[in-house]
Amino acid sequence: MKKQRIYKIPNIVTLILVTMFFSCNDGLKQVQKMGISENEPIGIAENIDLKYTDSGRVTANLLSPKRLDFSNRNFPYDEFPDGITLYLYDDDNKKSTVVSDYAIIYSTTNLIDLQGNVLITTSDNNILKAEQLYYDQKNEWLFTNRPVTFTTEKDIINGNGFDSNSKFTNAEVLEVTGYVTVED
């Protein structure tokens, strides 16, 4: 009788351990997510001063009071709820400036969404004002279907929409609603 009881205990312990082993799938990922709500950013950075360089030369400088990192999402993005100021430097070190009240960068699509008092001043003094503007980083393309004002050396053009490459060499205001030629 004692021999049967001795063999039953190791069998029961083995059965419990095997059950626990197979029930613990993907446990590490669950533990990592425990402290992070899916609606919360995975990181917060304040007083951003980020410089992009190419071959030792600064090509861009991003300034922002706050950055929220949502790279923990299925569709990851970075949010700048307090706006951005971005300085872009061309090959001749001439500076263009981009300012907006709010920005969001979608890393999967390489799309930047600028919102609220968007102001772009190019190195040759072209000025674009818009309430919302998108920038496709991969294709280096700016666009919107919202109202814009585009000021060049000779013209002030109002319209509903804008399309241009990042150098503004083929800038086009869509659905022009007003056009003023500035004379010297």
Describe this structure in words.
There is one protein chain. This protein is α+β, with helices and mostly antiparallel strands and 184 residues long. The chain has a single domain, classed as Lipopolysaccharide (LPS) transport protein A like domain (lipopolysaccharide transport protein A fold, Sandwich). Helix content is 16%, strand content 53%. A six-stranded antiparallel β-barrel has the order 2-3-6-7-5-4. The model has no long low-confidence stretch (mean pLDDT 85).
Task: Summarize the helices and strands and which ones pair or pack.
Elements: H1 2-23, H2 27-34, E1 43-54, E2 57-70, E3 77-80, E4 84-89, E5 95-100, E6 102-106, E7 111-121, E8 127-136, E9 141-151, E10 155-165, E11 172-173, E12 176-181
Antiparallel strand pairs: 1-2, 2-3, 2-4, 3-6, 4-5, 5-7, 6-7, 7-8, 8-9, 9-10, 10-11, 10-12
Short description:
The chain has about 180 residues and is of the alpha+beta class.
Strand order in space, largest sheet: 2-3-6-7-5-4
Q: What is the beta-strand fraction?
A: over 45%
Please give the radius of gyration in angstroms: 27 Å
Mean pLDDT: 85
Number of domains: 1
- Residue windows where pLDDT falls under 50 for at least 5 positions: none
Total beta strand runs: 12
By helix and strand content, what is the structural category?
Answer: alpha+beta
Q: Count every helix, treating DSSP H or I runs of 4 or more residues as helices.
A: 2
Give the distance, in angstroms, between the N- and C-terminal Cα atoms. Answer: 113 Å
CATH domain class name: Mainly Beta
Q: What would the principal axes of the Cα set say about the shape?
A: elongated
Secondary structure: helix percent: 10-25%
What's the helix-strand series? HHEEEEEEEEEEEE
Proper CATH architecture: Sandwich
Predict the CATH topology. lipopolysaccharide transport protein A fold
CATH homologous superfamily title = Lipopolysaccharide (LPS) transport protein A like domain
Query: Quaternary arrangement of the chains shown?
Result: single chain
